[in-house]
Design a protein that fits this description.
Layout: E1 3-11, E2 21-29, E3 33-37, H1 44-52, E4 59-64, E5 67-68, E6 76-79, H2 91-101, H3 106-119, H4 135-148, E7 153-157, H5 165-182, E8 185-190, H6 193-198, E9 202-207, E10 212-218, H7 221-226, H8 231-236, H9 238-259
Parallel strand pairs: 3-8, 3-9, 6-7, 7-8
Antiparallel strand pairs: 1-2, 1-4, 4-5, 9-10
Helix pairs in contact: 2-3, 2-4, 3-4
C-alpha cells in the first residue's frame, strides 16, 4: 500500500503575519477517498498545491512511501477548478497530449485514449472543440487526462464548484464509479458539505487563520454507494442529514470563533 503523507507542514506567505498552514499532518492511502472540507481561505488549495509539488513550504515534508518529494512527478495528477485544457486542441487531442509528451507509440495512444473516453462518457464528443463543451464535459476531459497519466494519486481542486446542482451530482457519481473501478486514490478539496460527506472515506476538516486540521473523521457513505445504494437514497438518509447539519454547525462556530 502506497501512502502520500504530509508531515508538520508550515507555510506563511510573504507580507502576512498569520500562517497559511500551521502544523498540517495527513496521510492519504492508495485506493482511498480523502476530502478536505473548509471554507474559502482556510488553505485547502495551498495544501493541494504542496501535495502536488507546485508549492514549497517553510518547514515540514511531503513523503510518498517515505521518499521525500521535492517537486511534481508522474505519481500525482491534478485536476484543477479551472479545467486548464488546451483550447486549440479538440477533446481527443487534449486527452492524448500527456502521452504524446512521453513519446508513447501512436497506436497505443489511440487505443488508450479511445478506452478512457468510453469510460468517461466522452466518445461522442471526441472530435469536438473545447469551447463547444459544457462545464461538466470539460471537467470530464480534465479527469480523463489525469487518469490516462496512470498516476496512483489524483488530486482534485474543487473541480465541481462552478457546476449546477444536477451536473454536480452526476460528477460526484462519476468520481465514486472511478474510485470503485480504477483503484486510484482520490484527494478532493471542497467547501460543499454534502459533497465532502459523500465522497470521503477520510474527511479532514480545516479552519482558517491559521489553516489547521481540526478533525479527521472516518466516513462510510461512499462504501454504501459501493455496495449498491443510490446517491439519492444516501443523501436523503436521516444519518446523512444529521452529519451534514453537525458539520455545518461546526464550520459556522469555527468561523464565528476567529471572526470575533
Amino acid at each position: 500500500m502506497m501512502i502520500l503523507e504530509a508531515k508538520s507542514l508550515q507555510l506563511t506567505f510573504d507580507k502576512q503575519n498569520t500562517p497559511v498552514l500551521d502544523d498540517i499532518n495527513i496521510q492519504i492511502e492508495s485506493g482511498s477517498l480523502t476530502v478536505i472540507l473548509g471554507e474559502s481561505g482556510c488553505g485547502k488549495t495551498t495544501l493541494l498545491n504542496i501535495l502536488a509539488g507546485f508549492q514549497s513550504v517553510d518547514s515540514g515534508q511531503v513523503l510518498l512511501d517515505e521518499e521525500l518529494l521535492k517537486g511534481p512527478d508522474a505519481r500525482r495528477a491534478v485536476v484543477f477548478q479551472e479545467h486548464a485544457l488546451l483550447p486549440w486542441l479538440n477533446v481527443e487531442q487534449n486527452v492524448a497530449f500527456a502521452l504524446e509528451l512521453k513519446a508513447v507509440p501512436s497506436s497505443q495512444i489511440e487505443h488508450e485514449v479511445s478506452e478512457i473516453l468510453k469510460i468517461m462518457g466522452l466518445s461522442h464528443v471526441a472530435e469536438a472543440n473545447i469551447w463547444q463543451l459544457s462545464g461538466g464535459m470539460k471537467q470530464r476531459v480534465g479527469i480523463a487526462r489525469a487518469l490516462l497519466s496512470n498516476a496512483p494519486f489524483i488530486l482534485l481542486d474543487e473541480p465541481f464548484a462552478a457546476l449546477d446542482a444536477f451536473t454536480r451530482e452526476s460528477m460526484q457519481q462519476l468520481i465514486l464509479d472511478l474510485w470503485i473501478n480504477q483503484g486510484k486514490a482520490f484527494f478532493l478539496i471542497t467547501h460543499d458539505i454534502e459533497e465532502a460527506l459523500l465522497l470521503s472515506q477520510q474527511l479532514i476538516l480545516m479552519q482558517a487563520r491559521p489553516g489547521r486540521v481540526v478533525d479527521n473523521k472516518k466516513m462510510g457513505f461512499a462504501e454504501r454507494y459501493r455496495t449498491g445504494e443510490s446517491i439519492r437514497a444516501i443523501k436523503s438518509d436521516p444519518e446523512f442529514i444529521a452529519q451534514r447539519e453537525q458539520l455545518f454547525e461546526r464550520l459556522r462556530e469555527s468561523k464565528q470563533g476567529y471572526a470575533a
